[in-house]
Specification:
Largest sheet: none
CATH architecture: Orthogonal Bundle
Number of helices: 5
Shape: globular
Structural class: mainly alpha
Number of domains: 1
Strand content: under 5%
Oligomer: single chain
Radius of gyration: 11 Å
Distance between the termini: 9 Å
CATH superfamily: ACP-like
Number of strands: 0
CATH topology: Non-ribosomal Peptide Synthetase Peptidyl Carrier Protein, Chain A
CATH class: Mainly Alpha
């Protein structure tokens, strides 16, 4: 799975939790889940669980704490999958 496919999958997983549709439409690697998309921290945990299921990976607490932006999430996914 290449980077664009991972971004597309990530977008699908976060869609139900996004509160700022305008920011979501402009999503890029620098997009912050909490600050830009207005996803609350409880839903961020749901997203991480969804990512684990989707990519069949396990994300440790330390990595979870770093997954605040699209790029950080992609980096964690890549480190686990590749």
């Amino acid at each position: 799975m290449n980077k664009e496919e991972r971004i597309k999958t990530l977008k699908r997983l976060i869609t139900p939790y996004v509160q700022d549709q305008e920011a979501f439409a402009a999503l890029n690697e620098d997009t912050d889940f909490i600050k830009d998309l207005k996803i609350n921290s409880a839903h961020l945990v749901d997203i991480i669980l969804d990512v684990e299921d989707e990519f069949d990976i396990e994300i440790e607490d330390e990595a979870m704490e770093q997954m605040m932006t699209v790029k950080a999430a992609l980096d964690v996914i890549s480190a686990k999958v590749d």
